[in-house]
Amino acid sequence: EVQLVESGGALVQPGGSLRLSCAASELSIRYYYMSWIRRATGKGLEWVSSIDSLLDGEGTNYPDTVKGRFTISRDITKNTLYLQMNSLKPEDTAMYYCAANRVWSTRPQDYSYSGQGTQVTVSS
């Protein structure tokens, strides 16, 4: 059974940094398009980053809301996905999920697998 387990969420002050991790099992992240998706309270799912399958060049993509502040990466030796978040803002407060799919998409509903999430709260 495929499992994606997120960790690293915390309460952080505005302007601070966090690194989220997503450990995968029964799924080799090198062959999937991997994304981070978030949901703020009372809002819908929002795609916040993706990294291409190694078979497709391993490019990264971000929406304008996080570009320049968030960085997605992966360690294939650990089969783990990361999201480095810098210059955090209160509007980044959300539950963050990692997700995997065979095809690239910015639509969260397209992803075949996702984890249970890790909470990020940005507040002073």
Beta-strand percentage range: over 45%
Taking all residues together, what is the mean pLDDT? 96
Helix and strand string, N-terminal first? EEEEEEEEEEE
The tally of helices reads 0
Please state the CA-atom Rg, rounded to the nearest Å.
13 Å
Helix proportion: under 10%
Task: Please give the number of β-strands.
Answer: 11
Calculate the terminal CA-CA distance, rounded to whole Å.
40 Å
Catalogue the unreliable spans.
none
Counting helices, strands and paired strands, the structural category is mainly beta
The 3D shape can be described as globular
Largest sheet: 7 strands, mixed
Structure, explained:
A hairpin with a 5-residue loop joins strand 4 and strand 5 (45-51). The chain has 124 residues and is mainly β. The chain is built from no helices and eleven strands. The mean pLDDT is 96. It has strands spanning 3-7, 11-12, 18-25, 33-39, 45-51, 60-61, 70-75, 80-85, 94-101, 113-114, 118-122. 0% of the residues lie in helices and 47% in strands. The chain starts with a strand and ends with a strand. It is globular, with a radius of gyration of 13 Å. Strands 2, 4, 5, 6, 9, 10 and 11 form a seven-stranded mixed β-sheet that branches.
Structure summarized in a few sentences:
This protein is mainly beta and 124 residues long. It has strands at residues 3-7, 11-12, 18-25, 33-39, 45-51, 60-61, 70-75, 80-85, 94-101, 113-114, 118-122. It has no helices and 11 strands.
